[in-house]
Each structure stands twice: as C-alpha cells, then as structure tokens.
Amino acid sequence: MTVTARRELVSPATRNAFRSLATDLTVRIVAELWEDHGFAPIPPDELKYQDSGQRRTEFMLYAEGVDWSDPNQVRRVLLVFEDFIRAYRNPDDQGTPKWLDDIRVRLERDGFTLDKEGRISWSNPPVLVRDLSTLSDASGITIELERIRRDLTTDPHGAIGAAKQLIEATAKTALGELNIEVDRNAALPALISTVQKSLKLDAGSAPDGPDGSKAVKRILSGSVNIAVGVAELRNQGFGSGHGQASAPSGLGVRHARLTVNAAVTWCELILDTLSDPAAPWRKTMV
User: Fold this and answer.
1) Domain chopping of the chain, boundaries
2) What angle (nearest 5°) sits at the alpha carbon of residue 190, between those of residues 186 and 191?
3) Where is the Abortive infection protein-like C-terminal domain (predicted)?
4) By CB distance 3.0 to 4.6 Å, which of 15, 41, 178, 281 could disulfide with 200?
5) Which residues contact 175 (CB under 8 A, 6 or more apart)?
C-alpha cells in the first residue's frame, strides 16, 4: 500500500522564526508557553535537532512532538505562537518591528493571517476537523481536504471538483476499513449506496431506536441525495475533472461553499459512524 505523506500546515520556515524568539526568553518561560496549551516535551534522547542554545533546544523538544499535519494540534500551536509574540514583544515598540513583520510574511505563506493584536487565524481554515489517525490510510481524504482549503475562496471550480473527490475518497476509505472489496470502476452513486448500507445508514436497514426513527431515516435518505447531488454538479461541468468547451459562467464562492459543506456533512456522517464503537453496524460484525 502506498501512503502519501500528509502536508504540514505550518512550514519549517515559520517554526524556525518562532524558535528564534526563544533565544531571548528563559527556559522556564519557553516550556510554560507550550505547556499552557497542553503540549508535552519529547524525551531528550529522541530529539533530532542539534543546537548549543538551551532555549532553542527547549523549544524543539515540544515542537518535534507536534503533528504538524493535524488541524487540531495546529490550532493549539497557533495559541502557543501568539503567546510567544506577546512574551517577546516590547510594549514600547512603535509600529511593527522587523522580526514581527518577518513572522507575518511567513505565516501568510502558510495560509494564516496575523492581526495587529498578535492574533493568528486561518486564511482558509480546514473544512473537516476529524482525527483520521485511526484509519489505515487517510491520505486520499487529506489530499482532497487540502485541495478544498486551497481552492475554496479562489477557485470555486476546483473546490467543487475536490468536494466530489472527497466523497469518493471517504467512501473508498470506509469500505477499505470494513474489508469490503471496492470495484475500481464503480460509479460514485454505487459507492455511496454500498458504504451507507454497510454502515447501516440506509433507510431500509436502520435498526430500532434513534437510528430507525422516521426522522433519522428521512435524514439518511437526504444524505444520499446530498452526496449524489455533489457528484452530479461536478459532472455537469461545474467542477474540475472534465475538460469543457467553454468555462461555466456565474459560478461563485457561494456555490463552492454550498457544495463543500454538503460533501463535508456526508463525510462526517460516514467517518463518525465508522469510528463509533456503539454504532449499529458493529452488532452485525460480532
């Protein structure tokens, strides 16, 4: 099985810029800034970074323990970085000091914004925040998520295409986790139907209890229509993946957001059900 490496959301260049701030702070403060947001250092003998500076080394003991491709961890790291800026910044500085402007530029290259108060936010935040580490191979999902994050506000055509591919990647990943053979030539509606039936998410096989209620069945039926609708929109030429004689007109960011949000809703349903230890589908596996 070939596993594609997950893209790091914060570049080494940005991390290095914040590491340099540690030089003028105490070791205790460096540690506290990380630990205030729930991070712990790795064992010193596992540290790959080599530096004679004790404070920079302390910074890296925490930084090397971060999964830089995990949106949840990166959200917490951004809070750490904000605290580093506040701890390092001289309140008497007039204007923006060069070191802070350098950090701002590096953050922008990574897709973040830094405001005047030193708060860091995503320019285009991740659309699906889920722990995918329990999946055997989540690379297909993470690739499409990154494409959506990149294209959502700048390329609606590309974002819609990636939304369709996200549904397909999620369906194939879930079926793989269930050890169900996937037909490589299967159309997306067939994949959607297969995975929902396998997870007892189709209206016909929902068990008694909340999952079998009329309201939930109605929602589950709607979820199929949502996923198929995303695929149809893309196939009608409003998403990337098919060459067109002429570019679609009138396509805007709002159409991309509608399509992406629909795709994410379906994918969250599949991934949440797949990981739920009490989900009805597990009773049939016993």
Assistant:
1) 12-122, 139-284
2) 75
3) 189-272
4) 281
5) 181, 182, 191, 194, 195, 198
Count the Cβ atoms, other than its own, within 10 Å of residue 176. 16
Kindly indicate the confidence band of residue 125, based on its pLDDT and cuts at 50, 70 and 90. Answer: low
Q: Beta strand pairing status for 120-122 and 112-114?
A: antiparallel
Name the 3-class secondary structure at 114. Answer: strand
Q: Is 111 left (phi over 0), alpha (psi -120 to 50) or beta?
A: left
Q: Does the 139-284 domain belong in CATH 1.20.910?
A: no
Q: Is the pLDDT of residue 286 over 70?
A: no
Q: How many angstroms separate the CA atoms of 121 and 107, rounded?
A: 9
The single-letter code of the amino acid at 53 is: G
List CB contacts of 16: < 8 A, sequence separation 6 or more: none
- In whole angstroms, what is the distance from residue 90 CA to residue 69 CA? 32
Q: Residues of 28-44 as b/e, b for ≥16 C-beta within 10 angstroms?
A: ebbbebbeebebebeee
